[in-house]
Specification:
Blueprint (H helix, E strand, L loop, with lengths): L1 H5 L21 H7 L3 E3 L5 E2 L12 E3 H13 L12 E5 L3 H12 L4 E5 L24 H10 L4 E2 L2 E9 L2 E15 L2 E6 L5 E4 L2 E4 L3 E3 L2 H7 L19 E3 L2 H4 L4 H19 L1
Parallel strand pairs: 1-13, 3-11, 4-5, 4-11, 5-6
Antiparallel strand pairs: 2-12, 7-8, 8-9, 8-10
Helix pairs in contact: 3-4, 4-5
Length: about 270
């Protein structure tokens, strides 16, 4: 909240209530009684799950849980709950979240770091000019740190988890496999590439495969309905008193898009009440 105050938001104008979960610590009924308008900008809480044999093994951790806990441990000067030092770490996913996990694993001095990305390796030169999203291989800070520590490119493209191998309850390794997106009769399908199964030792499997929307329990607490966990709206209006914006409305996206959405949502509310 300090950042918001530093940007010029005055406490007298706006009231910050920290450490408070909407729908749990304050019910929707209480909010409804107290305020004229409510904006939900709660991001995306539901991570895409790993669907592989033994995906309940100890040592499989979702990226946001891992990053949140590690940051908390650092700030509180506590021993890391997820201690990756000298461990074999595999990160599933190739986006910004996975990149943060690669950087964290490198800083914790993991023994090995491998990142699995389901899509094809992009070319070094961009093939899709602006305003398209560029089709170009980029190496962000986290992957760069991990590449430097491992002395090689840690990324394996068109690769995913086939099976998790457990010892007792704990993860011991994984079988990975090569996959390919194929266009079959106008429909894109993910197909396995035959005879590509490979075993890798793994102590920590970090899942960073994207976000599907808002968790069922959160939607229930917010008393909002959704379609496949997404609150889909054409503009910001959920009903006369409730607006939704940012990732919670658009699905997982980028910081700049969330900022623009927040500004547009504020305009929508100003116009509505003026
Ligand atoms: C690990 C990670 C790395 C990323 N890296 C990048 C990147 O490098 N570049 C980029 O452009 N984008 C990145 N993104 C995406 C970017 O963070 C999001 O698109 C953006 O933050 C969405 O903004 P938002 O305001 O909609 O939601 P969020 O930024 O997710 O904010 C939601 C807020 O709501 C709060 N909240 C949730 N539920 C409740 C509740 N019940 N009560 C009260 N408060 C609640 C949360 O604590 C949070 O503060 C990353 C995302 C993740 C998870």
């Amino acid at each position: 909240m300090e950042e918001a105050k530093n940007l010029g938001v005055e406490d007298s104008e706006l009231h910050f209530i920290n450490n408070t979960k909407i729908g749990v610590d304050i019910t929707m009924e209480e909010l409804d009684k107290k305020y004229d308008h409510i904006v939900f900008a709660c991001g995306t809480s539901l991570a895409r799950p790993l669907q592989a044999k033994n995906s309940d093994a100890e040592g499989i951790v979702y990226a946001v849980d891992f990053l949140t806990e590690t940051t908390r441990n650092l700030l509180d000067n506590k021993e890391f709950k997820y201690n990756l030092k000298d461990k074999n770490v595999i990160i599933v996913g190739g986006g910004d979240t996975a990149n943060d996990c690669c950087g964290t694993a490198a800083r914790e001095k993991a023994k090995s770091i491998i990142e699995l990305e389901i899509t094809k390796e992009p070319p070094l030169e961009n093939t899709l000019p602006w305003p398209n999203y560029p089709n170009k291989k980029k190496t962000d800070y986290g992957v760069l740190e991990a590449n430097t520590l491992m002395n090689k490119d840690i990324r394996r493209y068109e690769t995913t988890i086939d099976e998790v191998v457990k010892e007792g309850n704990k993860i011991k390794g994984v079988y990975i496999k090569k996959v390919r997106f194929e266009n079959v009769g106008g429909k894109v399908r993910l197909v396995d590439v035959e005879n590509t199964r490979e075993y890798l030792d793994c102590d920590y499997l970090i899942i960073a495969m994207g976000f599907l929307g808002t968790k069922d329990e959160d939607l229930k607490n917010y008393k909002l309905s959704a379609n496949s966990n997404r609150v889909l709206l054409n503009n910001f209006k959920y009903n006369d008193k409730i607006s939704v914006c940012g990732d919670m409305k658009n699905g997982q996206s980028l910081v700049v898009i969330a900022i623009k959405d927040g500004i547009d949502c504020a305009d929508y509310i100003i116009n509505k009440y003026n």
